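Protein data sheet
==================
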Amino acid sequence: MTYHLEFEKPIVELEAKAVELQTMDKSGVNLQDEIARIRQKAERILVQTYSKLAPEQKVQVARHPDRPHFGDYARRLIQDFTPLAGDRAFGEDAALIGGLGRFRGQSCVIMGQEKGHDTPTRILHNFGMTKPEGYRKAQRLMAMAHQFGLPIITLVDTAGAYPGIGAEERGQSEAIARSIESCLRAETPLVSVIIGEGGSGGAIAIAAADRVFMLEHSIYSVISPEGCASILWRSAAFAKDAARALKLTAQDLKQLGIIDTIIEEPMGGAHREPERTIDVVGDYIEKALNELGALDGHILKTRRRQKFLEMGHTL
């Protein structure tokens, strides 16, 4: 069953009406003019709606269950993808998937959070909330990329690192910090794309990259709107206000210099045309890797570290 957002309801109703009339048209009654009129109206409302989404609406789009996830990107963009499991210290974390493969003919290391598409897979992947062993696996993969001179691609889609007691006992904050450090120390090209949610340290742990791209309707923030509202107003009911104050949209973050480029999504969001979205993301990654591949590893590392040190700096 296709999932629809509340603010999409007028569009969905018109599209459903067009489908209903199309069925009636097959019975011998010519309704093509009416069907075309309804579809044009639905398209017009779709453009009007998505051209002026409020921050809280972008949060909903970024979390849309039909939005393409890490596995969708890996299947379409990566040939011979070989997942590598475990952190060599505690265990495997299915929330963060990573491994080796070929991206458009070039060997690479790719990793990212996987949220899952249905209840069993969401439980399996812990809804994309990574535990310490997941971030230590990321460190291991980045060290491997450094050793063999392979570029690193990371796809970010997480509400945040897993906040459970067990994760804290196993050093969640230390694992995230070490993962960020691994990103900054890598002497190979590192490209990151925020494909859905970029939540807190759980996101930046694998997104301290040479190029940070963000899909048009994705979000990237130090905390979720609900978490922020619970802290500041003691109620998640103020999540709408928090979303507007957090400056978490791609447009805000580009203006603030936190990300490098906004990747345009198909009209109506990535969930309407997932394959087209993935292909466009692949084009941006390919261009970035070609540009970065010409630079010396030491220069890459120095520029990357300086880039993040300068964020938020004011005279």
User: Anything to note?
Assistant: The first helix runs from residue 9 to 25. The radius of gyration is 21 Å.
